[in-house]
Amino acid sequence: MTKSPSDTTALPGQPHVARRDGQLWVEGVPLAALAREHGTPLFVYSKQWMLDALAAYRRGFAGRDALVCYAMKANSSLGILHVFAQAGCGFDIVSGGELARALAAGAEPSKIIFSGVGKSRPEMRAALAAGIGCFNVESEEELDVLNEVALAHGARAKVSIRINPDVDPKTHPYISTGLKGNKFGIAHSRALHAYRHAAALPGLEVTGIDCHIGSQITEAAPYLDAMERVLDLVTAIEAAGIRLAHIDFGGGLGIDYNGDTPPAADDLWRQLLARLDARGFGDRKLIIEPGRSLVGNAGVCVTEVLFTKPGEEHNFCIVDAAMNDLPRPAMYQAFHRIEAVDAGGHGAPRRYDVVGPVCESGDWLGRDRELDVRAGDLLAVLSAGAYCMSMSSNYNTRNRAAEVLVSGERAALIRQRETVQDQLRSESVADPSAFR
Ligand code: PLP
């Protein structure tokens, strides 16, 4: 934590979220004022945090031919994508819907790469029509289908094959993707065969190789191991006469949720580039696909305390945000720091389970947290920029939250709070004639 001579204290991992005179601010805007104006639950993002996070990667790649493709699954809100598009980022997409969003946000098509194990033919066609930079192909059947679709489209699809390097990223099992048992990529042992097959297909142009081993990775070692395994393959594939112009090392770098200490992006890349150079591949174009580390600690979710309730085993602090807004605790038992927006308190701190209104015992945001709150107070759920809004749902017919982007002392609404009318718009009762 940094303490300035005034009474401003930045929160750990979130230098743009700070307490001033006891109140939480994002950059130059107090959260309480945003909650008054836009209601709660409300996601608030710091634009500067995102740009700083991007700058750290770019420092690491200084002087190299490298492209940062923001993995937009982390947060695909248009206003967030626009920040990265304007900063010259590419995008890593995993669906036709993400393609449409990226294009709507002003993405340059040639900087879009398309990952994912299950691309449909219409999605492939849309991506070819848009002129995306590369398909990260995840199976041999996908190679055949993409070849067919590309030939029918009169195009050659640029492809990179996602390799499963069988490296343990030492993270939660649901967010490990580079182990033998995971559904992602083509097994290391099949890779050369798959490349030979791809190179022989007339609708495909092999341009690179790709791997992504998992998410919320907090050590450099799994990346270094994966790099060795990928470079072994590059050597073998090129010995078979197939030149790989780019190497894509995926995303996965973790953030500080609760005292986590992932390497800084520039430090990590200094280590990886030294290894790449030592193996003689320093001339290749590099692509990376970071998601969480570009947005995770840019965001907070502001929520209002509805009730406090003593229980026989736990006290409950019931708030108006829930697992449909912030699914990570329910899905992965993930930890988010939770702080009162106004640190003033009421002189009665207690330990609470912070829970939402959804009718599931799994609907909790934080367990056993010491808070000094009453109904009507505001709480901030921290590190809520990644895999929160983009994973939100309408479960219990709850409207999706509003979102605000802050830059300096200015704030802009980038998503209106959803209404029940929005939710009902695409539904209808069955037409009785359908059952006659
Ligand atoms: N690339 C691919 C293929 C992914 O599946 C993911 C997420 O799991 C990412 C990139 C982004 O990962 P992260 O948000 O951990 O950087």
- Percent of residues in helices comes to 25-40%
Determine the structural class based on helices, strands and strand pairing: alpha/beta
Instruction: Give the CATH superfamily of the largest domain.
Output: Alanine racemase
Kindly give the count of domains.
2
Quaternary organisation: single chain
Report the major sheet. Answer: 9 strands, mixed
CATH architecture of the largest domain: Alpha-Beta Barrel
CATH structural class of the largest domain: Alpha Beta
CATH topology tier name of the largest domain: TIM Barrel
Bound molecules: pyridoxal-5'-phosphate
Mean pLDDT: 94
Instruction: Write down the overall geometry.
Output: globular
Count of helical segments?
12
Distance between the termini: 68 Å
Beta content: 25-35%
Radius of gyration (Å): 23 Å
Q: Tell me how many strands there are.
A: 22
Q: Which keywords apply here?
A:
436 residues; alpha/beta; Lyase, Ornithine Decarboxylase, Chain A, domain 1; TIM Barrel; 9-stranded mixed sheet; 8-stranded parallel β-barrel; 22 strands; 28% helix; 26% strand; disordered N terminus; binds pyridoxal-5'-phosphate
